[in-house]
């Protein structure tokens, strides 16, 4: 637990501060795990949901914050194949970027993006000059309260300290074995016990700093009833839906996007509020 708190402290201290007010609008998604459109691409079944949701946010003036593990760079060695497989998603994200409404945080599965040369080599076409970072501090102008955003893997032995070993195990050991039903022990998104341990550590940081924290990593969406509190944006690889956190009008909402069958048997991508709002203006 001390390792997680120490790492989050370090990320928080070096994170850029972005001021926002009641007119600001952010949508936060994490854990897309975009792959290469093969059998192991967990994002592929929900790619149309992602595009429809993000397109709606673009039209409505939201800024998009991708909260880590956007690309599955542990299982896949060649980012250009991921970009080619999901070029529609990258095109839409680039439209956000052109408008100054796109921020990307790296997680454990795409920690390679920390390297500027790596980012420039593979992502320059869509995001020229982008700086992919580990954390962001959103500061609410109305009362000075902060919301800290990070992926949430910080302090974990195989997902942070020895992330390169975790990548090796996933790429060359656990991924092939998953075909035979062997569970990947490094994946917090597939282990309730590991996810619960990670959540308790993140909650301790919130208690210690009295600052709201938004992460992904565990794939388990969550909206705190009070601020400061712990929030989780969930993931884009849930069966048949994706989840997101919205910040708008001084409030935080947890939402999901899914395909619904309408009365005329047509299919429609719809947004549903799962929890909230948590009022930032009333925090503290």
Question: What are the main properties of this structure?
Answer:
about 280 residues; alpha/beta; Purple Acid Phosphatase, chain A, domain 2; 6-stranded mixed beta sheet; 5-stranded mixed beta sheet; 8 helices; 11 strands; globular
Describe this structure as you would to a colleague.
A hairpin with a 5-residue loop joins β10 (251-261) and β11. The chain has a six-stranded mixed beta sheet with strand order 4-3-2-9-10-11. α1 (2-14) packs across α8, α2 (47-59) runs parallel beside α4 (87-98) and α3 (79-85) crosses α4. The protein has eight helices and eleven strands. It has helices spanning 2-14, 47-59, 79-85, 87-98, 116-123, 157-161, 163-178, 192-209, and strands at 17-20, 25-29, 63-67, 102-105, 135-140, 146-150, 212-215, 230-232, 241-248, 251-261, 267-279. The protein starts with a helix and ends in a 5-residue tail after the last strand. The longest helix has 18 residues, at 192-209.
Percentage of β-strand residues: 15-25%
CATH class reads: Alpha Beta
Question: Roughly how many Å is the radius of gyration?
Answer: 18 Å
User: Residue share in helices?
Assistant: 25-40%
Number of helices: 8
